[in-house]
């Protein structure tokens, strides 16, 4: 159940099926049987831009060269698989060892199911960007012919993120990147509009959820103007320009430097394009 290749092959499920099949030529079962774990890992850690992601944005007082972080000191369970040189820094494509405790029925039993969760850490100028591939797991597929009563992840993504942040803070002054300014600027430029937004009122938090294809700025310009007066809460944005530079939707929690992409991107640059646009507009 938890052999090395079995664990590696589970990460293939984090990609669109068509994308995997077009790359390797064959069914998913044939691909996993035919290719080695090393070949599968090469594909996985070269194509993380095609996965669903949780993104966390930080700023540093140092560049990558000045910081000189030692990957050997990363927290236990995090391993750098590939390194990619950037124009002004470096990108580490890593795997996280993830374990689920699973309770099975008929008969009652407790088993461990392991996964590799990809995460990239990018150091660009004085920006640090941590991108977790969203771990969507199908436990029932792994424990065939057994019903699952309960499954629970032993170490959450939030805890792992905190460990990465603690590691990086031994090399630099790392701070959450508040991107309210950047989000507001691209919203003002009509690149995006909101389909669901939370915002602070004097004594409460209000939520606007738009029906169908309607967007907030277009339908409620006065609410939009009011929103710009303070920090934006968690908001779902829709890209309103008719091209494939941005994904159709993404969620932002700007004060915390958090972005979420819960749909597969249509091309591997879409998530990076959003990140780059927000950061460049945040100055």
Essential attributes:
twelve-stranded antiparallel sheet; single chain; 29% helix; 283 residues; alpha+beta
Task: Provide an overview of this structure.
By secondary structure, the chain is an alpha+beta fold. It is 29% helix and 33% strand. Strands 1, 2, 3, 4, 5, 6, 7, 8, 9, 10, 11 and 12 form a twelve-stranded antiparallel β-sheet that branches. Helix 8 (180-188) crosses helix 11. The longest helix has 12 residues, at 157-168.
Shape: globular
Order of helices and strands: HHHHEHEEEEHEHEHEEHHEEEH
Amount of helix? 25-40%
pLDDT averaged residue by residue: 95
Summarize the helices and strands and which ones pair or pack.
Blueprint: H1 4-10, H2 17-24, H3 28-34, H4 37-44, E1 53-60, H5 64-67, E2 78-86, E3 89-104, E4 109-124, E5 127-133, H6 139-142, E6 148-153, H7 157-168, E7 174-176, H8 180-188, E8 192-200, E9 205-209, H9 216-219, H10 221-227, E10 235-239, E11 249-253, E12 258-261, H11 270-280
Antiparallel strand pairs: 1-5, 1-7, 1-12, 2-3, 3-4, 3-6, 4-5, 8-9, 8-10, 10-11, 11-12
In brief, what are we looking at here?
The protein has helices at residues 4-10, 17-24, 28-34, 37-44, 64-67, 139-142, 157-168, 180-188, 216-219, 221-227, 270-280, and strands at 53-60, 78-86, 89-104, 109-124, 127-133, 148-153, 174-176, 192-200, 205-209, 235-239, 249-253, 258-261. It is α+β, with helices and mostly antiparallel strands.
